[in-house]
Amino acid sequence: MPQPLIFSASAMQFDPFECDRGIALSVNGITATYNTLPALCTKSSALSTTAMSCGQYTWKIQIGSDLYWFALGVARKPLKNRTGNEEESFSWTSRGDNRDDSDTSPWESNDVLQFDLDCDKHTLQMTILRSGESHTIPDLPDRELFVYASMAWTGSSVSFV
Fold this sequence. Notes:
By secondary structure, the chain is mainly beta. Helix content is 0%, strand content 42%.
């Protein structure tokens, strides 16, 4: 059985051409920070540079300290609606995932999350490394997917680790 492709922070980064103007990227593209005024409170998204369409991929993301609203997972390109929707993005949010409508955040500030994408089985698994809690989204589309992060509060950030 082939080993999954594991991306380190130096290999996985956010694409400056696939970020909303409300997102500021670090120079190396590893950290995405929401930088719009809270009064605007609009969601902004970022996609990775890496296209994933076959095989297995693993990456880790660390959540920043502000958990007002996040969505993390994968999405198709281009996003018509930059905040994503069920046809474009496949993700969990800090208010539950886009498949179950729960109001509880599955993670805490500064948690590191591991994502395991199996393009052949069409599944995305997210594991909270602190607790070992794991969630899976089944039935992903058979097409190119990109790491997806969306935020809605000034100072919110996510980083590849």
